[in-house]
Each structure stands twice: as C-alpha cells, then as structure tokens.
Design brief:
Elements lengths: L11 H8 L3 E9 L5 E11 L2 E11 L5 E8 L8 H17 L10 H11 L8 E2 L6 E2 L1 H9 L3 H9 L4 H5 L4 E8 L2 E7 L6 E7 L8 E7 L2 E3 L5
Parallel strand pairs: 6-11
Antiparallel strand pairs: 1-2, 2-3, 3-4, 5-6, 7-8, 7-10, 8-9, 10-11
C-alpha cells in the first residue's frame, strides 16, 4: 500500500485536534540511509476520568509516503474500549485513502477562461519544436506555451530528458506544475500515485494557473484532452 500521505503530514497536534485526544505524542522515528523509515505515535483518550492508551506504528518509503500503518491498544486488547478503537481506526483509514481534505480554492474567471480554451484542443495536425528541438509540442501545448508565456516550463521538461528515470519511462510520463506561495513545483511520474521521477522547485513564477498537468508520450508533449 502506497498512499499520498507523507510522514511530515502526520502530526500529534492534528490528531489531538481532529480526534479530541488528551495527548498525542510521537514515540519514535527512525530514518534509513535511503531516506525511508518507520515511526510511532502514542494516542491517549480520556474516558470516565481514566486514560485509555493506543499506539500507531508505520513505515514510509524513500519518497516519504506512508506505506504501512497499524493501530493497536497500548498493551493487551480491551473490549471495553472497542468503540474508541473503531473511531481511531476509521479516522486513519480515511486519511490514508483520501488524504487530508483541504478546501479547494476556486479558479478566477481568467483561469477558468484559460482552462476552457485548453479543453477545446482534442487532437493535433501540426507539431512545434521545443527550444532546443528535443521535443515536439502539439497545438494545445504550443498554445499553452505562447499564451501563458511559459517557455521556461517546457525548457525544464526538455532539460532533463537525458536522465535515466525519464529515459526509462518516456513511453508515458505525467508532468505537473503546482504554484504555491508565489513559487512553483514541477514534477513527473510514470502515472498517478507512482513515485516521483523528477522534481524541481523555484522561488518565483508568474504561471497563470494554480496547477496544471500534461503528458509526455515519447518525444511529444500534449494536453490531457489531446491524448
């Protein structure tokens, strides 16, 4: 099991707030040489003026994604507190499956207009060269590059084509740009929810959309609607 929840998102303060715990304490975190590791939390509930203790133990991979999470009583199983156990179990199953639900920000009218135009591209007759000629762009990607003035984004993709992980997955790559706090993160995966092949961060961008995904198939960059 690989989830989108990362180890740095699991915080005792959040558990305490979400679950109404008395205390939530990180018991341990061990990091291996390859940056994977394991961890544990102690969760304490107050019931009838008595403390009921639980624990969670888990593993995370080299991309910091949680791969295993076990909930248990701290000590032996106690049927008297099965209701509390089930509440905790349901909470952790939900965040592992769906992640933390953050309110989605609405697009501005300008962003909606851009996305609407991009969705109008459903195929291509012409191809356009990238800056150094290593990649071909469909009509939709060329529109994106010209109208959002994001030649630099295509240049990032083009500049890492020599990397082994990119070469090995060139038949299909999902590229994504995400804008946060005025900066950007560009990354690529072989498909949704798979490990990151390449990632680059920048401190400033004027990219017009909050986030955007597109595909690479061989040497061609194309919009999702053109696939």
């Amino acid at each position: 099991m690989i989830t989108q929840i990362k180890i740095n998102e699991l915080k005792g303060t959040r558990f305490k707030k979400d679950l109404g715990l008395l205390r939530a304490i990180k018991s341990y975190q061990n990091k291996h040489k390859d940056q994977s590791g394991n961890f544990g939390f102690t969760l304490i509930i107050e019931k009838d003026k008595k403390e009921v203790w639980f624990r969670i133990d888990g593993d995370y991979n080299i991309n910091q994604q949680i791969t295993k999470l076990n909930l248990s009583f701290y000590g032996s199983y106690d049927p008297e507190h099965e209701k509390e156990y089930n509440k905790l179990s349901s909470y952790f199953q939900d965040i592992l499956k769906n992640g933390y639900n953050t309110p989605k920000q609405e697009n501005t009218p300008i962003q909606e207009a851009i996305l609407s135009e991009l969705e109008g591209f459903t195929g291509t007759q012409d191809y356009y060269k990238s800056t150094f000629g290593k990649l071909k762009l469909t009509e939709g990607m060329n529109f994106l590059r010209n109208n959002l003035n994001c030649y630099w984004l295509i240049d990032i993709v083009e500049s890492v084509q020599h990397l082994n992980k990119i070469q090995e997955n060139k038949e299909f790559i999902l590229w994504k740009i995400e804008v946060k706090d005025g900066g950007f993160i560009v990354n690529s995966r072989s498909d949704t929810n798979t490990p990151i092949l390449y990632e680059q961060k920048g401190g400033y961008t004027d990219f017009s959309l909050k986030e955007f995904e597109f595909y690479q198939v061989g040497d061609v960059l194309l919009l999702k609607s053109e696939y």
